[in-house]
Specification:
This protein is α/β, with parallel strands linked by helices. Helices cover 46% and strands 16% of the residues. It has helices spanning 32-47, 69-72, 77-82, 90-93, 110-117, 144-152, 154-163, 169-175, 187-199, 203-218, 221-235, 239-249, and strands at 8-13, 16-21, 53-57, 62-64, 99-103, 106-108, 120-124, 128-130, 166-168, 180-182. The protein has a 6-stranded mixed β-sheet, sandwiched between helices. It has a 4-stranded mixed β-sheet with strand order 4-6-8-9. Helix 6 packs across helix 7 and helix 10 packs antiparallel against helix 11 (221-235). The two termini are 23 Å apart. 39% of the residues are buried. Bound molecules: hexanoyl-coenzyme A. The site of hexanoyl-coenzyme A (HXC) has 21 residues, from helix 2 and strand 6. Belongs to the enoyl-CoA hydratase/isomerase family.
């Protein structure tokens, strides 16, 4: 991608798109410009057949310390309501392409919510997750009260959201908020490895698999199983299903064409 950005850097590594939040002085606080850039870059990767997974990361000190409080502080109810403040973040959860958050340091408020918008969270052992909005007299607004509760259950979510306390990586791992915890200096490399593995699969199958898992998050068991069954059937309309199964029978590696 040739676009230039003010608040992020964007690169590709093979079939993996990498978005790095880059507002170090503000601990990668999420302002509107950054949201627009991240969502735009992610949609660009999603539209590219050359990209099979997206990694979103920050710095060693902070993945992101939340929504930019300085930008938000003077807004009124009418402002946030009429501009659908931060509503564009929802587009990240709707991507076909699997997304991986590589988290070191603070992932607080909107930063924790951004990580949870991703399909997989790889956490460094320095990572600290939290929803401290209560300390500012507000509540989570990018899905935190919903996704955190589904991820860790009501008891822990209430604890986090009502006290604003931070949760270290080992607790987040125990509770199932994150997929893996690794030494902090290996967070990005691990995320890139996982992303490269996913990007090597059939892009059609991975997007349908992601849709099926997300349905478990959003619906009851009967509807979820029904959705999974019909998504499973639809994989039989793809060339990649023919190739994947032929490769197994012929004892060779599949050569997926992502169609
Ligand atoms: C704007 C922020 C910021 C934020 C940190 N900074 N977090 N600026 N918005 N969310 C800035 C600080 O003002 C400071 O800049 C610089 O980053 C370094 O921060 P320090 O506080 O000096 O660092 P430290 O003492 O190490 O403390 C780190 C911290 C603390 C624990 C992460 O910064 C903190 O509590 N930040 C706020 C976390 C938070 O409340 N997040 C939730 C936001 S609400 P200057 O220039 O002053 O030195 C939210 C709602 C989402 O996310 C929903 C919206 C729809």
């Amino acid at each position: 991608m040739s676009d230039t950005y003010a608040t992020i850097t964007v690169e590709t590594q093979g079939r993996v798109g990498v978005i790095t939040l880059n507002r170090p002085k503000a601990l990668n606080a999420l302002n509107t410009e950054l949201m627009t850039e991240v969502v735009g870059a992610a949609k660009g990767f999603d539209a590219s057949p050359e990209i099979g997974a997206i990694v979103i990361t920050g710095s060693d000190r902070a993945f992101a310390a939340g929504a930019d409080i300085k930008e938000m502080s003077s807004k009124s109810f009418a402002d946030v309501q009429s501009e659908r403040f931060f509503g564009d973040w929802d587009a990240l959860a709707a991507l076909n392409t699997p997304t991986i958050a590589a988290v070191n340091g603070f992932a607080l408020g909107g930063g924790c919510e951004l990580a949870m918008l991703c399909d997989i969270i790889i956490a460094g052992d320095s990572a600290k997750f939290g929803q401290p909005e209560i300390n500012l007299g507000v509540i989570p607004g990018i899905g935190g009260s919903q996704r955190l509760t589904r991820a860790v259950g009501k008891a822990k979510a209430m604890d986090m959201i009502l006290t604003g306390r931070q949760m270290k990586a080992d607790e987040a791992d125990r509770l199932g908020l994150v997929s893996r915890v690794v030494p902090a200096d290996q967070t990005l490399s691990t995320a890139l490895e996982v992303a490269a593995t996913i990007a090597g699969k059939s892009a059609i199958a991975s997007s349908l698999a992601k849709e099926a898992v997300n349905r478990a998050f959003e619906s009851g068991l009967t509807e979820g199983v029904r959705t999974e069954r019909s998504l499973f059937y639809s994989t039989f309309a793809s060339d990649d299903q023919t190739e994947g199964m032929a490769a197994f029978v012929e004892k060779r590696e599949p050569n997926f064409q992502h169609r």
